[in-house]
Amino acid sequence: MKKTPMRRCVGCMESKPKNQLIRIAGFEGVVSIDPTGKAKGRGVYICRNQGCFRLAQKKKAIGRGLQMEVPLEEMERLFLELKNYETKD
């Protein structure tokens, strides 16, 4: 039996199976949502809900995790894009 990789959400700080979270990648100053989990660069994981995203945004956890400055406009764009991956749980 294969072991499920666990990742920690930067919003709620809970460890969950990797396939339940969405990866946000930062590479050469560009921040993007990485649904495949294979994009180049540093990545942070976040739950697929608005609450965790808002929490991460408030704590500036995404920028800190990616070790780069993420402007507010970029955060809003990510937030809108994240809505496509949101799960109702």
Structure description:
The chain is α+β, with helices and mostly antiparallel strands and 89 residues long. The chain has one domain (6-85): YlxR-like (Hypothetical Cytosolic Protein, Chain: A, 2-Layer Sandwich), CATH 3.30.1230.10. The chain is 29% helix and 27% strand. The protein has helices at residues 50-58, 61-66, 72-82, and strands at 6-8, 15-17, 21-27, 30-34, 42-47. The strands form two sheets. A three-stranded antiparallel β-sheet has the order 4-3-5. The protein has a two-stranded antiparallel ribbon with strand order 1-2. Strand 3 (21-27) and strand 4 form a beta hairpin. The longest helix is centred in the C-terminal third of the chain and has 11 residues, at 72-82.
Throw out a few tags for this protein.
89 residues, 3 helices, alpha+beta, 3-stranded antiparallel sheet, two-stranded antiparallel ribbon, 29% helix
Silhouette: globular
**What percentage of the residues does DSSP assign to strands (E)?**
25-35%
Q: What is the CATH level 1 assignment?
A: Alpha Beta
Please state the CA-atom Rg, rounded to the nearest Å: 12 Å
- What share of the residues lie within helices? 25-40%
CATH homologous superfamily title: YlxR-like
Structural class: alpha+beta
- Tell me the CATH topology: Hypothetical Cytosolic Protein, Chain: A
Q: Which stretches of 5+ consecutive residues score pLDDT under 50? A: none
Main beta sheet: strand number and arrangement?
3 strands, antiparallel
Q: Which CATH architecture would you pick? A: 2-Layer Sandwich
**Helical stretch count?**
3
